[in-house]
């Protein structure tokens, strides 16, 4: 089932076209991961779909309706986004930050209802952050802080959650912790998860559907084995990759790779270097 999709979407930054006539479908109640080189338009796509930035032409449709025509609070009840580098938490406690997720449901007085408090406590419990409720967000580790941000997104009670590089700056254990949490939310609560990831093996392991972007266009979209293969990775990243199978998940895994452009450049450089003369005995 497809509830969210774009139709010939074009997005500019200043005079530069970043997203080009993009037609993308987001599978409902699945985990979708967007991969691609830096500057290819991954974050731009997320921001455009969630209406953080405007698009120049084309359409973004949710449940058959153009999101540009939706009321802001109404849209915030359907879509939540966790940006790449969340800011604005100085001096806030964990509970206060998570309460921001209830904004779409509050009246003009901004007071938390009993339902709001119940949802906040539930979001803290689900993300394993209840013990931090009265602690300053600034005092938390990177992994703890990321789980708190996810709790805020959950408190928004949306069926669709966007995350822009949710594992950035986290060590391996905390990366796995965050990704397993998102996987549980998808499997146990049918949340539709869309996230940008740089790690190809994490994308292959946790995603049901992968979208590979390059220069604002889709190179390939599909299941892990359809995207994480030598042909696609060569086209998207200019790498020659060796692909195997993860023995625990049976998902594709990138074992090693060489930079194709780099090899060619090195060969050209070596051709210009004079041979080392043999020692004279």
From TrEMBL:
It comes from the Bacteria. Its main location: membrane. It holds the Pfam family ABC_tran. Keywords: ATP-binding, Cell membrane, Ion transport, Iron, Iron transport, Membrane, Nucleotide-binding, Transport. It is a peripheral membrane protein. It is found in: Cell membrane. One of its GO terms (molecular function) is ATP binding. This is Iron-dicitrate ABC transporter ATP-binding protein. It comes from Siminovitchia fordii.
């Amino acid at each position: 089932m497809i509830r969210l999709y774009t139709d010939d979407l074009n997005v500019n930054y200043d005079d530069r076209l970043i997203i080009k006539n993009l037609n993308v479908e987001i599978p409902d109640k699945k985990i979708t991961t967007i991969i691609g080189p830096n500057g290819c338009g991954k974050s731009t796509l997320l921001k455009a779909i969630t209406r953080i930035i405007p698009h120049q032409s084309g359409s973004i449709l949710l449940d058959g309706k153009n999101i540009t025509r939706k009321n802001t609070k109404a849209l915030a009840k359907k879509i939540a986004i966790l940006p790449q580098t969340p800011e604005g938490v100085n001096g806030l406690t964990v509970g206060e930050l998570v309460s921001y997720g209830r904004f779409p449901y509050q009246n003009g007085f901004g007071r938390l209802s009993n339902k709001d408090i119940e949802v906040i406590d539930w979001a803290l419990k689900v993300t394993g952050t209840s013990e931090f409720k009265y602690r300053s967000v600034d005092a938390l580790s990177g992994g703890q802080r990321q789980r708190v941000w996810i709790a805020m997104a959950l408190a928004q009670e949306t069926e669709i959650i966007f995350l822009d590089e949710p594992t950035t700056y986290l060590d391996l254990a905390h990366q796995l912790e965050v990704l397993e949490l998102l996987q549980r939310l998808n499997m146990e609560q049918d949340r539709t998860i869309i996230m940008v990831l740089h790690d190809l093996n994490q994308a292959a392991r946790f995603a049901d559907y992968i979208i590979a972007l390059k220069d604002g266009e889709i190179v390939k979209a599909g299941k892990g084995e359809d995207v994480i293969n030598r042909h696609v990775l060569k086209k998207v990243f200019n790498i020659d990759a060796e692909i195997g199978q993860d023995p625990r998940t049976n998902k594709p895994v990138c074992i090693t790779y060489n930079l194709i452009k780099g090899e060619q450049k090195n060969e050209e450089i070596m051709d210009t270097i004079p041979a080392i003369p043999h020692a004279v005995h």
